[in-house]
Amino acid sequence: MPEEFQIGSLLLYKNNQLIAFNKPAGLPVQEDKTGDKSLINLAEIYTKSKLNLIHRLDRPASGVTLFAKTPGALASLNEQFRQRQVEKIYLAAVQEKPQKEEDTLIHFLKKNSRNNRTQAFETEQPGSKRAELSYRYLGSTDHYHLLEIRLHTGRHHQVRAQLAAIGCPIKGDVKYGSRRGNRSRSIHLHAWKLRFRHPVSGEWEEVLAPLPDDDPVWQAFQTTLNPSNAPE
Fold first, then answer.
1. Judging by DSSP bridges, how do beta strands 204-208 and 189-197 pair with one another?
2. Whole-angstrom Cα distance, residue 101 to residue 8?
3. What number of other Cβ atoms are within 10 A of residue 123's Cβ?
4. Which pLDDT tens digit goes with each residue over 98-109?
5. Strand 18-23 vs strand 11-14: parallel, antiparallel, or unpaired?
6. How far apart are CA 117 and CA 177, in angstroms?
C-alpha cells in the first residue's frame, strides 16, 4: 500500500459529469479480496456522492483513473471506450530495450483466472482475444528504458503481457518476467494521458497524470519527457 495521502492531492480533473485522480501504485481502484481501502471509496468520500467506474487500472500501476458522476456520463464514456475513441497513453520503464524503437504489437491474449495472469500468443488460440498496442522508445537511464505506449484494445494485463512477450518486461513486474520485484510491490507502468470527448459538449478533453514524485526511476525520466527541465 502507498503511504498515507490526502485524496484531494490526487485530483487531476473535475466537472459536473466526470472526475479523475492520479492513482498511486499499490492502491486498488475498487475493493478487492484483500479488503484494503480503494480509490473509489476515497473518491466517493471526497465528492460526497456515488461514482461509477469507467475503466480499470492494475493495482501495482499508477496514473489517470476516470470516474463518472452521472448515468449519462457513464453511458457516453462506455460507448467511447467500446468504439475505441478514447486515447490511452501509458509510460513503461523496462529492463531491456526493444529491438525496434517503435512498433505495433498484435498478440492473442488468454487469461488464466486461477493465477490472475494473461498469456500472449502469436496466433489465435481457443478462448483468446486479439490485443493491439503501439509503442515508441523515448530514452534511457543507466539501467532502464522508457517506452510510450498507445493502447488500441483494452485487455486484461495487456501492456504487461505484450511487453513481456517481446522480451521487455516492465520493471518490478515479476509476474511477467522481471528479474526482481520493487520493494513497494509496484510496477513501473503509469497511465500518463487519457483523451476523450466531454459527454455533454462533445469537446476533446485531455487528462495528464504527472509521474510519481517519490520514485527515483520515474524522476530520472522527467528530463526525457521535459527536456527544458534538464540541468544546465
1. antiparallel
2. 38
3. 7
4. 999 999 999 999
5. antiparallel
6. 12
pLDDT value at 132 more than 60: yes
Number of H helices, E strands in the chain: 5, 11
Residue 160 backbone dihedrals phi, psi, to 5 degrees: -60, -45
3-state secondary structure of 89: strand
Per residue in 136-156, pLDDT (tens digit) is: 999 999 899 999 999 999 999
7-222: which CATH number, 3.30.70.1560, 3.30.2350.10, 3.40.640.10, 3.40.50.1820? 3.30.2350.10
| Location of C-alpha cell 492520479 | 22
Mean pLDDT score across all residues of the chain: 92
- 58 labelled catalytic: yes
Break the chain down into helix, strand, coil percent, rounded to 5: 20, 35, 45
- Of 32, 36, 58, 103, the active-site residue reads 58
User: What's the pLDDT band for 125 if we cut at 50, 70, 90?
Assistant: very high
Q: End-to-end CA distance of the chain: give it in Å, rounded.
A: 37
Residues 6+ apart with CB under 8 A from 166: 98, 99, 105
